[in-house]
Amino acid sequence: MKKIISLFILFVFTSCDFAPGSYPYSEIYEFDVSEEVLIKAVEEFKTDNPKYVLSNQERFIDGKRDKKDHWYHIWFYYPDRNKVVKSWIRGNKIAFVGIGDGMDLSNYKEINKDFSRQENKNEKEIFERLILDEINNYTPPTGAYKQEQTK
């Protein structure tokens, strides 16, 4: 009986180490650059491509929410589709989290969770082509990104 109780206590105290985290369905892409270089590349991309920027929107401000935040949040806008894309940077990784309609994020869907297989594939290809491939142009030649394996 003591063994069972000990195992249960061990499980309770270690189980949070195996939790999926805050963004378990995100599609993660890894760059061969530092977090600072990646953030700067995104900022330069947005400066040169203002159509992807959500201007005058308090709700969609890039950056960390506070000093304890682990993620540098980034928002992109697809003007031709009137879609808002949520993503983040942490370390040398950028994640595609989800996408919603218009400035109110109606019909918000998380990537790798809420789309059909084909829709999911299409959304990731659009993000890679419009955003990541372009950001890649703002990183050093050795900074090319690679997609992590989807869980």
Automatic annotation (TrEMBL):
Name recorded for this polypeptide: Lipoprotein
Taxonomic lineage: Bacteria, Pseudomonadati, Bacteroidota, Flavobacteriia, Flavobacteriales
